[in-house]
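From the shared-data thread, chain only:
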Amino acid sequence: MKALIGCETRGMAEARFLTEIQDVVHRLNLAELRNHMKMHIDLKQQEQKVRYDKTRRDAKLYKKGDLVLVRITSDLATGSSRKLYPKFKGPFRIHKILINDRYEIEDLRENRKRGRTVAAADNLKPWITIQGELAITADINEFSCSSP
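Structure, as tokens:
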């Protein structure tokens, strides 16, 4: 047969045996490839965590009763530009402190029922109140303009 086709013919038993060997080798290569990929993924995740943690800061802590503003995360489509719309709404009062930097807040705005909702600390900022009168004085003579 070698003279006709250039190679030795194999019997059925030999073909099955070779197929089994190839399957085992293929499975070993897959296991090695999976281990290599797992190590690569773990390494990349560690690099990404280090990069993320460089700029990450702890969330601001609020106390029960603090007044806050809440970031507006979604708005109805009005067809007009929202560029100059307010970015925050409020005031809201911290009603309860939850886990994972979450707060239960209640709405204090006029004409609103006192509904409560949960907000993350990264979507809150303190409500600034000015105590007493704000007195800004300037000497008018100091800012005079001269005509040419």
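Confidence is low (pLDDT under 50) at residues 134-146.
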